[in-house]
Specification:
six-stranded antiparallel beta sheet; 8 helices; 32% helix; 6 strands
């Protein structure tokens, strides 16, 4: 698995912690955040959303599924050296740009031409088109969103059960931290419903709605002899796809 999938517990990876508190350090980051938000508010996945969005009536040519999972996939699929070299919103920019090219909304030559144009004249006006219906849909999405909860829970495990975290193949994207793989924990809570991820992770296991659990891990189970003597337990929210029965259940 890629290094960006296995960050938990690694010390000194990127040097001193950056305590920058501004959400947007540069103006272009606001626009990238806005583009991502608009794509989510127009995503084809909203046809099945609980609020009942009439996406087909919105006058947009964007007809693809775009969720947080797609954004994360774009970042995690990067070469690890680029992943750690680039700033946060640069990763967003790369993921969004690659997606728009792959989906056929723009081609690389158009991107190259626009890049050259704005480098030559940074103050050149940005393209824009007023479309109240699109604005209204995106604003409604920001207010109402979409819950991933789908129906009642159908859990395989109960509170108090011992579980072992699976180690599925991690390709472009996973929601399973590397430091939890193969570790044993105890179910602390079963959430009330099944939950969708809106994105298939293939062999990694996420796709259809599944139960979600809070699992408690002893720090010595995770870190061994390097765990701090008085460290408290670690709690992780995990999809059922990532859990297997503990040794007690197999006997």
């Amino acid at each position: 698995m890629k290094l960006q999938h296995h960050l938990g517990g690694l010390e000194g990876l990127e040097g001193p912690i950056d305590f920058e508190r501004r959400v947007f350090v540069e103006d272009w980051e606001r626009r990238i955040f806005g583009i991502h938000t608009a794509m989510m508010g127009l995503s084809a996945s909203l046809r099945d959303a609980l609020p009942g969005y009439d996406i087909d009536s919105v006058p947009t040519t964007f007809d693809s599924t775009w969720t947080w999972a797609d954004l994360r996939t774009g970042a995690e699929a990067m070469d690890p050296f680029d992943y750690f070299r680039l700033r946060y919103y640069e990763k967003w920019l790369g993921g969004i740009s690659a997606f728009l090219v792959e989906q056929g909304y723009v081609d690389r030559d158009e991107f190259a031409a626009a890049t050259a144009r704005y480098r030559a004249d940074p103050d050149a006006p940005l393209p824009g088109r007023a479309e109240p219906a699109i604005d209204a849909q995106v604003q409604r999405y920001l207010r109402e969103g979409d819950s991933p909860r789908r129906g009642p829970a159908t859990p395989d495990f109960a509170v108090g059960d011992t579980v072992v975290v699976a180690d599925p193949p991690a390709a472009d994207h996973t929601r399973l931290p590397g430091y939890l793989r193969g570790r044993r924990g105890t179910v602390e809570r079963v959430f009330e419903g099944n939950y969708a991820y809106f994105h298939s992770t293939g062999e990694d296991g996420l796709g259809d709605p599944v139960p979600v659990y809070v699992v408690r891990f002893d720090p010595h189970e995770l870190w061994g002899a390097s765990a701090e003597a008085h460290a408290g337990p670690l709690y992780a929210e995990l999809y059922q796809s990532y859990l297997t029965p503990g040794p007690e259940a197999r006997r």
